[in-house]
Structure to design on (461 residues):
């Protein structure tokens, strides 16, 4: 079904999360879509129609204006559909969000976006009939995206590329009420992986989880394409330094799950008590969805004068504030799956080329920052350790000696470069036949043999 009469290839991008949704999960897909035409691929984005959003950013769609990109929006019956007339929906408390997530995972498999599948498949097939594509790319979560991609592959014969932004079966946010729930997820994931022509993960821990749970895959069946930053976002940005010499600390993102500001805020309270002059010299900003519990915590610790909560800001304005900051704050608490956490904001922090106060445990995020050479690590649960790192950073700031990450290291995460790698995988997926290792495995499966491939410990991908 690969069209032969056009020089540019076309790809269908299955992505429930896409602008004007404004949270960080959309950045990877948006930037791929933005740069794919530069590598000979014209994307059609299959996504959902307008609905309720925890954060909405209409400005991001401007990045693909004038590009050969089609956005195909379809209905979807899912929780946010029922808030579509409200536009922006206030983010629930962490407790409410957690309870709702568990309830959803009991009732819906693989997730509460499964009500999109029927609409998405019908719309995609109708579109492909009129505008043929060469490949299907599905990015998850939600994992319903993978099931849509799998059904479209079954119906069209087109190659399928799947992109794991988070682990599926071992996702730390997943709740399995019974072993049956987990088994059903595992079965669905294996079905997707057996039929995918290319498999991508954002980091090594997620890749290792995929290989460990699916022994029919070999090491080379999963390629790592990391998260990244867009250099174009930073072009033309002029830094506005604080005129009073204060050290500006910025956190960009939303606190949820194991990302909790309590230890950091407690460190600020301790500084305020023991070093009032230093406290006055700190200018702390939080950019992201504003939660009631964060406001309450600031009041409880009586540090409202030290911290400014901005709420969600358009992406361009957030980048501007990254440029203005002296130090960028990253918080990842301890919890299940902490080694897999390498959030999108981490790479935008690198793109801003600023030192990072990293309140993180061992894992993917720490490994990335260590190689950059400008991170100051603190135990995410220890206010005293965080306080010590703040004091060190302020001494460096006062003497104009704050470090910056290596330019050569950071450059490898440029979105354009990463999109080039993605386009290479797309081209490989067009080659006849599935990957060799899975040809052997499938043949063995049909003959009743138990063909298993143990992943190697090295990771050149």
């Amino acid at each position: 079904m690969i069209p032969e009469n056009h020089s540019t290839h076309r790809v269908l991008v299955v992505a429930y999360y896409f602008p004007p949704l404004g949270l960080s999960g959309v950045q990877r897909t948006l930037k791929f879509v933005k740069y794919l035409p530069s590598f000979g691929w014209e994307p059609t984005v299959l996504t959902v129609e307008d609905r309720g959003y925890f954060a909405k950013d209409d400005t991001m769609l401007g990045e693909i204006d004038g590009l050969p990109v089609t956005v195909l929006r379809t209905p979807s019956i899912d929780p946010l559909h029922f808030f579509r007339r409200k536009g922006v929906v206030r983010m629930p408390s962490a407790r409410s969000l957690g309870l709702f997530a568990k309830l959803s995972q009991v009732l819906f498999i693989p997730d509460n976006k499964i009500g999109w599948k029927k609409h998405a498949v019908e719309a995609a097939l109708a579109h492909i009939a009129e505008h043929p594509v060469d490949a299907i790319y599905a990015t998850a979560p939600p994992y319903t995206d993978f099931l849509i991609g799998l059904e479209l592959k079954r119906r069209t014969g087109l190659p399928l590329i799947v992109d794991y932004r988070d682990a599926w079966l071992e996702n730390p946010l997943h709740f399995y009420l019974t072993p049956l729930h987990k088994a059903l997820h595992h079965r669905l994931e294996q079905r997707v992986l057996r039929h995918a022509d290319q498999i991508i993960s954002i980091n090594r821990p997620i890749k290792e989880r995929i290989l460990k749970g699916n022994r029919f895959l070999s090491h080379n069946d999963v390629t790592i394409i990391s998260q990244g930053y867009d250099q174009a976002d930073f072009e033309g940005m002029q830094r506005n330094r604080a005129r009073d010499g204060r050290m500006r600390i910025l956190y960009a993102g939303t606190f949820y799950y194991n990302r909790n500001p309590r230890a950091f805020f407690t460190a600020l309270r301790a500084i305020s008590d023991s070093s009032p002059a230093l406290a006055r010299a700190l200018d702390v900003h939080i950019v992201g969805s504003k939660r009631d519990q964060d406001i309450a915590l600031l009041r409880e610790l009586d540090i409202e004068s030290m911290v400014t909560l901005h709420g969600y800001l358009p992406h361009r304005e957030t980048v501007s504030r990254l440029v203005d900051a002296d130090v960028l704050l990253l918080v990842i608490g301890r919890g299940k799956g902490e080694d897999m956490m390498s959030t999108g904001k981490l790479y935008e922090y690198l793109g801003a080329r600023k030192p990072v106060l990293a309140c993180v445990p061992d894992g993917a995020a720490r490994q990335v920052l260590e190689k950059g050479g400008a991170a100051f690590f603190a135990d995410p649960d220890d206010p005293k350790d965080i306080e010590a790192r703040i004091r060190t950073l302020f001494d460096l700031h006062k003497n104009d000696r704050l470090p910056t990450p290596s330019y050569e290291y950071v450059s490898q995460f440029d979105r354009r470069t990463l999109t080039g790698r993605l386009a290479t995988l797309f081209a490989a997926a067009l080659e006849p036949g599935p990957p060799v290792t899975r040809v052997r495995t499938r043949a063995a499966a049909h003959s009743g043999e138990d063909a298993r491939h143990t992943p190697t410990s090295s990771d050149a991908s």
